[in-house]
Design goal:
Elements: H1 14-31, H2 33-38, H3 44-57, E1 66-67, E2 76-77, H4 82-99, H5 101-132, H6 134-144, H7 148-151, H8 162-175, H9 181-198, H10 203-219, H11 224-246, H12 259-276, H13 283-304, H14 318-323, H15 339-362, H16 365-387, H17 392-416, H18 420-434, H19 437-446, H20 464-468, E3 478-480, H21 486-492, E4 496-497, H22 506-517, H23 520-529, E5 534-538, H24 542-550, H25 555-560, E6 568-570, E7 579-584
Parallel strand pairs: 3-4, 3-5
Antiparallel strand pairs: 1-2, 5-7, 6-7
Length: about 575
């Protein structure tokens, strides 16, 4: 347990770790084969990400992240980073001359998630090998394949930014276990800078890493270079990625890295460097100076962008906040998720925390301190995951190593047990830890099914991706379609849409929701304001059910019942009866 592998190089199990990574990728490929063939993305954001890449290939500027086909003619500026577009762009560009654009895109939709997982798996495997040996390293990578919240971010077609953020976190975790403070702190800082540049969701964990490195400094002033290097690399990395992806734009936004964020980290980085020059400073004096630096950094942020002290979603229109934001489950707290999500997550994260405590208790010296730091980071990530469900992927990648160790330990016990009762108990524990969803499925089999609600059980028989393609025969017009259908329309046609589920188009989203829930006459005024040419929808999709629940005699309810107003003319584009298309007539 106390053997220091951090300087060993000869016995790192590269081939076995690659095989473990390939095994998980093969499982992902098999379980998502139908989705891959039909082109059904896990999330609308993934479809819109591909639209962004196509626009880049079509000549849109690198620094121009406006989606001109959302709320035309001005369009909507997206808050996404070009960093995530880059690997997709490179793969499609490289393969298109050989296999054509369609096949190049299909390859990218598989390769990018798998390569992202490969980066995360390499960091997890390397760190596990350093701490616990080759066997645990292999099982830590395999454990990633049994963590649903983590696996979801690396499945084929999952090309949105969450996988890259998870990989950035894994690299930072590996980096702070290196022997050389300046190198380790710098790698961690650059990695977290990339993750934050992709999305601000990683900010709380960047702060958690800073707390860990501050604690090292508190215990031993010779370890101050960890935090100094981390903060300097973080601030420089953020500036570099901002210039590389945004250019010299000084446009301020609260939902992505902007000049105010850069100023905050520059002040924090310079302050940390200045404190680091005071070699003999410890205890209360050290804490006081860091408190002062924190106040100065926060003050500079508030001075430049005071409105960003609140949540980026605080200014949402009440209808958008109530009928869209609160219903995006992945962005809501864990306790608002279905049991099939939170029960497995709580079991596995609880097991990860327990395994971490055992590792800490069994260790001595630097490894004991490391496991206490690892435990703190896991707890921070779990808390973040409790508040924002999709952030459970961050907790999962941190928990992979202790879960891998726990799996190896249980397997060793299973082999050594001669009594069938003990062997069965250990096997049951392993199944529960690696496949906790089975517990939920077993409970469902003996419990009465709940009445169908707004989510889950009521799935649409009208495939939005398959049917959106039918609209391409109508030319290039502006389509009034549900928020969840918008990305499919943009992906498979030349049309524009009034809005998609992206908060920077909040005004257009508000108009769309109001139109669907208002009377036909009021809807007509709102559609005219957006110069709408066609209305298209799947009448049985959950979003339409929501609108009909809000107003049972509103515009959406009329369309769902097939009673369209006289200013709409039905258009036959083929497809199922649930796919309704209308031309707006004067």
């Amino acid at each position: 347990m106390n053997e220091d592998r951090r300087l060993r190089h000869g016995d790192f199990p590269v081939q076995k770790l690659v095989l473990a990574w390939l095994a998980v990728c093969a499982i992902l490929l098999l379980t998502n084969a139908t989705r891959l063939v039909t082109g059904r993305f896990p999330d609308p954001d993934d479809a819109l990400r591909l639209v962004q890449v196509r626009d880049l290939l079509g000549g849109q500027g690198w620094f121009d992240t406006t989606q001109y086909r959302i709320d035309p003619p001005s369009g909507t500026t997206m808050h996404w980073s070009r960093l995530v577009d880059l690997p997709l762009l490179l793969i499609v560009t490289a393969l298109e001359p050989l296999v054509g654009q369609a096949n190049a895109e299909r390859a990218a939709l598989v390769m990018v998630p798998f390569l992202t997982f490969g980066v995360a798996a390499a960091a997890v495997g390397r760190l596990a090998w350093r701490l616990l040996g080759a066997r645990v390293a292999i099982f830590a990578v395999l454990a990633c394949g049994f963590l649903p919240s983590l696996l979801f971010q690396f499945q084929p077609l999952r090309i949105d930014h969450h996988g890259w953020q998870t990989a950035s976190l894994a690299i930072a975790l590996w980096a702070i276990c290196r022997r050389r403070p300046q190198a380790g702190g710098s790698i961690a800082g650059v990695s977290m800078a990339l993750g934050i540049s992709i999305s601000l969701e990683l900010l709380p964990l960047a702060a958690a890493f800073a707390i860990v490195l501050f604690w090292r400094w508190w215990l031993n002033s010779n370890d101050r270079f960890w935090l100094v290097a981390y903060m300097q690399a973080l601030s420089i990395g953020l500036i570099a990625t901002y210039l590389a992806t945004r250019g010299l734009s000084f446009e301020a936004h609260c939902d992505s890295v902007s000049p105010a964020h850069l100023l905050f980290f520059v002040v924090a980085g310079c302050g940390t460097w200045a404190i680091g020059r005071m070699v003999k400073l410890t205890g209360f004096g050290l804490a006081s100076l860091f408190a002062l630096v924190g106040i100065l950094a926060l003050g500079s942020f508030a001075l430049v962008s005071p409105t960003c002290l609140a949540s980026p979603f605080a200014a949402l229109d009440p209808m958008v906040e109530r009928y869209w934001y609160r219903l995006v489950l992945e962005g809501q707290p864990l306790w608002k998720q279905p049991a099939s999500t939170y029960v497995p997550a709580l079991i596995q994260m609880g097991a990860g925390i327990g395994a971490m405590v055992l590792l800490m208790m069994r260790s001595r010296g630097w490894t004991r301190r490391w496991w206490s730091e690892h435990l703190f980071l896991l707890l921070a990530a779990v808390i973040l995951g409790l508040l924002v469900a999709r952030s459970l992927a961050f907790a999962a990648v941190i928990a992979a190593i202790p879960l891998g160790w726990l799996a190896v330990t249980l397997m060793n016990r299973l082999r050594s047990q001669g009594r069938p009762v003990y062997s069965f108990s250990i096997a049951a524990i392993m199944v529960l830890l690696l496949a906790p969803t089975s517990l939920v499925l077993a409970a469902r089999s003996v419990m009465p099914a709940p009445e169908a609600g707004m989510e889950g059980a009521q799935s649409s028989s009208c495939d939005i991706y398959e049917n959106a393609q039918r609209l391409d025969q109508l030319g290039s017009e502006t389509i009034f379609a549900p928020l969840d259908m918008g990305p499919a329309v943009l992906l498979d046609t030349k049309h524009a849409v009034v809005a998609t589920g992206h908060h920077r188009a909040a005004d257009a989203m508000s108009d769309l929701i109001k139109a669907f829930t208002s009377s036909a006459d009021e809807a007509r005024v709102l559609l005219a304001a957006h110069a709408v040419d066609y209305v298209a929808l799947c009448t049985d999709m959950n979003e339409i059910r929501l609108y009909t629940t809000i107003s049972d005699d509103g515009f959406a309810a009329q369309l769902a019942s097939g009673e369209a107003p006289r200013w709409l003319r039905p258009v036959d584009v083929g497809g199922p009866a649930e796919f309704a298309v209308y031309r707006v007539i004067d």
